[in-house]
Amino acid sequence: MLEDGTFKEILEDRYHQYRSKADTLRDQGEYEAAAKYYRKCAGVMRDIAEKESSDRMAKKRLELVENLSSAAEKLENAGERDQEPARAGDSNPSGAPSAGGGGSGGGSSAGPDSTDENETVDAEAYLSEVPETDFGDVGGMSDLKQTLRDKVIDPLERSELYEKYNVSVVNGILLYGPPGTGKTYITEALAGELGYNFINATPDEITSSLVGEASKNVAELFEVARANQPCMVFIDEIDALAGKRSGGAQKTQSERQMVNQFLQELTDIQGEDVIVVAATNLLEEVDDAIRRSGRFDERIEVPPPDETARKAILRVHLREKPVLTEAINWNEVAEKTEGFVASDMELLATEAAYEAIDEVDSVDDIQPIAQGHIDSAIDEIEPSGPAA
Ligand SMILES: Nc1ncnc2c1ncn2[C@@H]1O[C@H](COP(=O)(O)OP(=O)(O)O)[C@@H](O)[C@H]1O
Ligand SMILES: [Mg+2]
User: Name one Pfam family in it (predicted).
Assistant: First the structure.
C-alpha cells in the first residue's frame, strides 16, 4: 500500500484536474459533461475525507462533497432543460461549489484558494519565489516558446543592446487562447526560465479578497512586485478586470479607478525589472482602456496543442510515472486525442496511472503504464477543444 499521505496527494491532484475540467465545461455551457466531472470531484473528495486524520477537516471535506453533488444536480437539470443553470448564491456563480478543500490540504500553500470567504489577504500572500518549472517542462509549443524567447527573454537579458538601438523592452504581454491550453503554466515556466519571482493574482482576488479598495490593492500588488525585483506579475483572466462582462459599458467609479491605477502602474514600472503578463480566454472582452493603452501591444496566442505538442505534453506528465515508453504508439495516441487541450493531456496521464493502479496489488508488483491503460483513459475523457 502507498502511504496515506502520498495517496492523499495523488487524490488532491486528481481532484484539481477534475475540478478545472468541470469548471471549464460549465463555462462552455456543456452542463451535462460538467455535471459528470463535478460528480467525479465529489467522489474523489469523499476519498480524501476518509484519509483525513482530523475530524474537523474531514467534516469540511464532506461539506464540499455535498456542494459538489448539488452543483452536479443543478447542472444536470439545466442540461435537460438546455438552459443556463440558475445562478446560485451571490458570490458563487452558476451552481459551482465554492472554492475550498483545494490546495489547502496539507496546509502547505497559503494561496488565495485556501482562504475562507471574506477573509482579507495581504498582497504578499500572492508572491512566490522563482517557479521551479521552466521551458523544459513545457511540452511541445515550440513556436510559442521561440516567440517568448525572441520577444521577452532576449530583450530582458540583453536590454542594454536593445536600448542602444532605441528599441524599448516590453514589460506587458497579453496571452490569449482557449481554456486549458497552458497560459498559466507557460507563464510560470517563463518566470522560471527568467529567474523572476512570481505574483499570481486574478481580478476577483484584486477586487474582493485583498484588503481595501480595488485600486489600492492594485497599488499594493505592484509595491510588492517592486520590492521583489526581478518580478513577474501575472494577471489571469484579465477580461474580468472591469471587462465587458462585469457591468457592461457602465463602469463603477471604483472600477475606473482600478483600471487607471493599473495603467499607471504599467507606466511606472518602465525601466524596472517588473514585467506584467496578462492572460485571457476572451480577447474581445478585455477592457478597452487596457487594450488601447499600448501597454499590451505584445499579444501572443496560445493555441490548442497540435499532434506533436499533445505527445510532448503527455510525456511531460508521464515523466515521473512508470511507463513502458517504447511499447507506446505515440502517433496513435496523438491521433486519438484530437480536440484534447493541454489540461486534458495531463488528466490523461493521471487517468492512465489509475488504470494501471487498478491492476496492481502491492508496491512489489508495479505494472508500468501501457498502451491499453492509455487507450481506456482516452475513452473516458471528454475533449475540451472543438470537436474534430
Ligand atoms: N505545454 C505544456 N506541457 C505540459 N503540461 C502543460 C502544458 N500546457 C499546459 N499544461 C498542463 O495543463 C494544465 C492546464 O494549463 P493552464 O495553464 O492552467 O491552462 P490555461 O491557463 O490556459 O487555462 C496545467 O496544469 C499543466 O499541467
Ligand atoms: Mg489559467
Answer: AAA_lid_3
Same-domain check for residues 280 and 135 = yes
Residue 178 lies in a domain: yes
109 inside domain: no
Domain that holds residue 27: 1-101
| Closest ligand to Cα 238 | 2
The DSSP secondary-structure symbol of 169 reads P
pLDDT in tens, 207-234: 765 556 788 889 989 999 999 999 999 9
Pair (97, 168) in one structural domain: no
Between the CA of 276 and the centroid of ligand 1 the distance, in Å, is: 19
Is the C-beta atom of 155 inside 6 A of ligand 1? Answer: no
Site to probe by mutation for ligand 1, drawn from 14, 343, 344, 345 as the one with most ligand atoms within 8 Å of Cβ, is 343
> The pTM is what?
0.74
Number of structural domains (the chain) is 3
**131 and 79 co-located in one domain:** no
What type of residue is 183? K
b or e along 38-74 (b: 16 or more beta carbons within 10 Å of the residue's beta carbon)? Answer: bbbbbbbbbebbebbeeeebeebbbbbbebbbebbeb
Determine if ligand 1 sits within 6 Å of the CB of residue 141.
Answer: yes
Going by DSSP bridges, is the β-strand pair 274-280/172-176 parallel, antiparallel, or unpaired? parallel
- For 270-291, the pLDDT digits (tens) are 888 999 999 999 998 898 888 8
